[in-house]
Specification:
The complex is a heterodimer of chains A (179) and B (232).
Chain A lengths: L6 H24 L2 H17 L10 H19 L27 H9 L3 H12 L4 H8 L3 H34 L1
Chain B lengths: L2 H11 L8 H13 L1 H12 L1 H11 L8 H9 L7 E2 L3 H14 L2 E3 L8 H10 L5 H10 L15 E9 L2 E9 L6 E8 L15 E7 L2 E8 L11
Antiparallel strand pairs in B: 1-3, 2-3, 3-4, 4-5, 5-7, 6-7
Helix pairs in contact in B: 1-2, 1-3, 2-3
Classes of the chains: A mainly alpha (179), B alpha+beta (232).
Bound molecules: zinc ion (ZN).
Chain lengths: 179, 232
């Protein structure tokens, strides 16, 4: 390893620079703190072993995020298949124009994310993290840019609908209690 | 420009990090003026922008577990665990740990498994035979502090990093050989913490020492004198 002097210094720099972002990603992907801790740890263990593959430190973040997603996919494949919402036909449903913006709660958002199939969940998480361009996201997922764009559009719409429905249910419940 | 290109550019224009090329803006504008479908899509995109910002902010709102990066580094580099214990610490320290937990001190790291080997080799390595060694150990853990000089460090049994008032602080535990005297000391930089909770269980005493820019909150059982350095 040349760009930081030693492997140890390089890996330490990766942990210092990227632990938080990777943990957030792992948490949003897996929906659980323990799984997020384990996944993040696994990423750095793998990174330490494969450090020679990282030629340019400027690519470190993308590289680590890719390792994390692969580690996550490896785990969920080993487990069972969860039932996800179908996104067929979602694109036909229009957003409610200028409706007031509901308060978005982190846990509620996670519940909505958990319903999305991974191929939709990953791009939408990366999109909202604002760390990566569409092109970066496409590369991390190893799919064409157009595929990322269309999955993103649908996933964003599903999230908005799901969070709006939750807000409506909350409002209705609140009113109901007053009666 | 066709509708597909227009929708693509609209998506790009949605992100601050993906500014449109000036050469793309005018053709897009022309297309939107001529195409009601894309104009409507642009309008909808604008309408949900506030919602998008709220989702983005919630998405990034994930608390990071305290102490995990440091633990991870120890694991990656096979370094000594943060939690060091000599063999006899468990029983005597248990009450102290319980009392400290009850008074608002939390363990930052999950206790690391300490092997018998570690325990046997620790004293020989002389990692913490005096306050200066403890300070340099803590510095490696990211805590730049001054341990109390009044204690007899041959009686030091463990050095840990705990959470006190939501910050990482050092906790040193001293135990005299007969285990009837034990003390845990929180090393708190001056003026950065509220006074430690004095409302603790009956068999425990607390003494606060202010010295060298630090507040040392000492929770102890037995005669504290038995843990202090003998001054010549
Ligand atoms: Zn059009």
């Amino acid at each position: 390893m040349s760009w930081f002097g030693s492997n140890k210094t390089a890996v330490e720099a990766l942990v210092d620079g990227h632990y938080a972002a990777l943990y957030r990603y792992a948490y949003r992907l897996s929906g659980a703190t323990q799984a997020a801790e384990d996944l993040t740890q696994e990423v750095f263990l793998q990174a330490q072993k494969m450090l020679h593959q990282l030629r340019d430190p400027a690519n470190a973040k993308s590289w680590l995020f890719t390792i994390l997603r692969n580690a996550y996919l490896h785990r969920v494949r080993a487990e069972k298949s969860t039932r996800f919402v179908s996104l067929d036909g979602v694109a036909e449903v229009a957003d409610r124009g200028n409706a007031p913006v509901p308060i978005v709660d982190s846990a509620q958002l996670q519940a909505a994310l958990n319903q999305l199939p991974e191929v939709f969940r990953t791009p939408v998480i990366l999109y909202y993290f604002e760390d990566f361009s569409y092109k970066d996201i496409a590369e991390q997922m190893n799919v064409p840019l157009g595929t990322v764009m269309s999955r993103l559009a649908r996933a964003k719409m599903v999230l908005r609908q799901s969070l709006t429905e939750h807000a409506e249910v909350t409002t209705t419940t609140a009113h109901g209690e007053g009666i | 420009m066709d509708c597909q290109d227009a929708r693509l550019l609209l998506a790009f224009s949605d992100r601050p990090s993906e500014k449109l090329d000036p050469a793309e803006i005018q053709p897009l504008q022309h297309h939107l003026e001529a195409c009601p479908d894309c104009a409507l899509a642009a309008e909808r995109q604008q309408a949900v922008r506030g919602f998008d910002l709220a989702i983005g902010s919630a998405m990034r709102d994930v608390p990071i577990p305290i102490g995990q990066p440091a633990m991870l580094k120890q694991q990656l580099f096979g370094e000594r665990p943060v939690l060091w214990k000599r063999w006899s610490v468990a029983s005597a320290a248990a009450a102290l740990i319980f009392a400290l937990t009850a008074s608002g001190v939390y363990y930052v790291n999950r206790p690391t498994v300490v092997t018998t080997n570690d325990l046997l080799t620790w004293p020989q390595q002389g990692i913490a035979s005096n306050a200066e060694d403890v300070d340099s150990f803590l510095e490696k853990q990211g805590l730049n502090v001054r341990s109390p000089r009044v204690f007899d460090y041959s009686l030091l049994r463990s050095v840990e990093i705990v959470e006190f008032q939501k910050r990482r602080v050092a906790k040193l535990t001293f135990i005299a050989n007969d285990e009837k005297v034990s003390a845990s000391v929180l090393v708190l930089p001056h003026r950065q913490f509220d006074a430690p909770n004095q409302d603790i269980q009956a068999n425990l005493s607390i003494r606060i020492i202010n010295e060298d820019g630090y507040t040392y909150a000492i929770y102890y059982q037995g005669r504290l004198d038995g843990l202090l350095r003998v001054l010549n």
